[in-house]
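[agent] plan:
  1. take the single chain provided in the ticket
  2. run structure prediction with default settings
  3. attach C-alpha cells to the ticket
  4. add a short note for the reviewer (M.T.)
[agent] executing step 1
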Amino acid sequence: MRHLESLRLIEAAARAGSIRKAADDMNITASALVRRINRFEEEFGSEVFERLPSGVRLNPAGELVLHHYRATLSDLARVKSHVADLGGERRGHVSIACSQALLPWFLPRQIASYRSQHPGVTFSVNVRDRARAEQELATYSSDLALVFEPVYLVDFQVIATIPQQVSAVMRADHPLARKPELRLRDCLDAPHIAPSSSYGVRHLLDFAARKGSRRVSPVVETESFELIRHYVIHEQVIGFQIPIGLSGLDDQRLVLRKISERDLPPGSLILGQMRGRTLPVASARFAMQLAAALEAEETIRFTGAAEPQDDT
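[agent] step 2 finished; step 3 output follows
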C-alpha cells in the first residue's frame, strides 16, 4: 500500500511521456517527481523507464509494474464494494466503454434504473470504437465493454451477446422507405452516409460489399452515429445503424429498414469484461442488469418509425 502514491506518479509520467509535464499535471516539482521515481526504482531493484531525449517511456519492467498497479486499484475497489455491502448500503463506481449506438436511449435508461435503486453508485461512460474498448478492459480503464463486433476477443470474457442487423435509416419520404426490407445493392447505389472504418457497422458493410459488385462510397463519412441520424433528415441519403441505436427514436421524419440477411448477416453486440478479472460488486451487478436488458431487447420486434406502404 505504501507504494501506491509512487505508482500513481509513475502512471502519470508514463501517460505524459515527460517528467516535467507529469509534474505539472500532478502539481509537484519535477525534481520531487524524479526523486520519487528514483527511490521506487532503487527499492524495486529495476528501472521502470527508458530515458529518452524527448522524455520517458516505460520499459518492459515498467509495463508490468503499471499493470500490477491497475490490478491493485481494481482489487481495492472490489473490496470497498464488499465492505459497503456489509453495511447494507451499495456504493462504488462503474466504468463502461461502449459503442456510440448505446448512448441515445439504451444506456441512459439502464444507468438511471440502476441508480434509482443504488444512488450511491457513480458511473463513467467512455465512448470508444471496438478496438479501443477492448484495450480499456486490458488496462483496467473500464470495468465493462459493450461494443458492436469486437476486434480481437483475446482477453475478452463474454457476458452477453445479441445479434444486431445493420439497417438503413432514411427520411420517411425516401423512395426506398416504401420497402419493408432492402437489398444492400439498393442502399449502395443510392447516395449514402457511413461510419468510418474503425466501427463494426462499417466493417460489416465493407465485407459484404466486397462479396458483390458494389463498394461503400459514402458522400459523407463520419465517426459520429448521431451525425448520421441527423444528416439523413437534411439530404435524401441512406444512413446505416444498428436497431438498438434507434430503439427509442420518436421522429416521424425517419424510418429504419432491414437490409436483407442474404446480403448482410447480422453482427454481434457483445457485453464483456477482462478475462479472469473479478469485478467490483457494483460493476458485477450492473453487468447482470445489462445482460438481462439485452436479452429482453433481443425479443423486441424490428419496427420502423413509420409503417411501410405496399409497393403494389
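[agent] step 4 note for reviewer: The mean pLDDT is 86.
[agent] ticket updated
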